[in-house]
Amino acid sequence: MSSKKYHFETNAIRTQTERSQHREHSVPIFATSSFVFDDAEQARALFANELDGNIYSRFSNPNNDEFIQKLCLLENTEAGIATASGMAAMFISIASFLKAGDHIVASRSLFGSTHQILTGLLPRWNISHTYVDIQADLSTWEEAIQPTTKMIFVETPSNPGLDLLDLEALGKLAKQHGLLFNVDNCFATPYLQNPADWGADLVTHSATKFIDGQGRAIGGAVLGKKEAIDEVRFLARHTGPAMSPFHGWILSKSLETLSVRMERHCQSALHLAQFLEEQPEVVSVKYPFLPSHPQYELAQRQMRMGGGMLTFELKGGLDRGKRFLNALEMLSFTANLGDSRSICTHPASTTHSKLSEEEQARVGITPGLIRVSVGLEHPEDIQSDILQAIDRSK
Ligand SMILES: *Cc1c(COP(=O)(O)O)cnc(C)c1O
After folding, report:
1. Alpha-carbon Rg of the chain, whole angstroms?
2. CATH of 258-392, one of 3.30.70.1140, 3.40.50.300, 3.40.50.150, 3.90.1150.10
3. pTM of the predicted protein model
């Protein structure tokens, strides 16, 4: 395995499972449920945790280990666990640390299923939460902290509002109060921001999005200090939300190209955002690296580039938003993001339709809001399709 002596791109490519006697160049898929013991003494030592080594693929496998070693180098964390999905990562990163009576402070702007964990599942085990609006200042976060609070959980940039949270300020707050700081870094990816550098104890990922980058595989990861990850490993080993070796192989391969893909996603997204700002039928555009973004300065400080996601608001509200989606010719209409193929969604009529208009507004959703995951097609083709759909949906 490689070490921190290399740059991001090199670590993402050259961190590799040890070559076997077959002298393969590309890492094979270790499609095996279990691993053979050399002798009784080795088996005893492996089970006693005196030796590091593979026993059973529910809790360790060379492909998943390679994926995690890479992610740790890219996120500046010591250890990690690969999971079957992003949601498995979110859940075990919380469940490993909170017990009955505990409390969690979270940003109100959360991925839908994370919201369901906090509101629909954790209360069953008497774990409560307080939401803080994404625009709230630091004192509001501090006021939400109770004597039973154990964790602060956030996403930045938020989905779909693309609002940012100040990771440095929240990291310090968490530290002052002795709380675990858990950051879902799915939207930014390790290429754009490293929450651990700002004090995050846990960095959580859906690898399904930009990390896979091609809409093929579901996966996730929890990363952090070794001590914290040992807690997560206990829960994961005995409850089984394991990533399959096949997905570990795909996702590790995907990381090899993460930097070049993110560069292009971000460049195309910035160009598209600038282009949309000039369109008369567009009321507003939100993108972290547009000077018109209310947190442009924070974005510049916290992120390397603006990310692959942008939103814009069309004149004409809910119906216009739906007509726009129906008028698209090339861009996909699907519930994913971070794909090589550009994707448009209309949160008010789909993912967030169960919220009232007031609740939608609180998480940054207006009736005509369109979310774009800017893909890797030629930027002019993405722009033309959006422009013709704007025209035809008038
Ligand atoms: C998609 C997503 C998740 C969930 O990940 P899955 O891999 O779909 O389980 C969690 N957080 C964010 C921000 C996401 O976009």
Report:
1. 22
2. 3.90.1150.10
3. 0.96
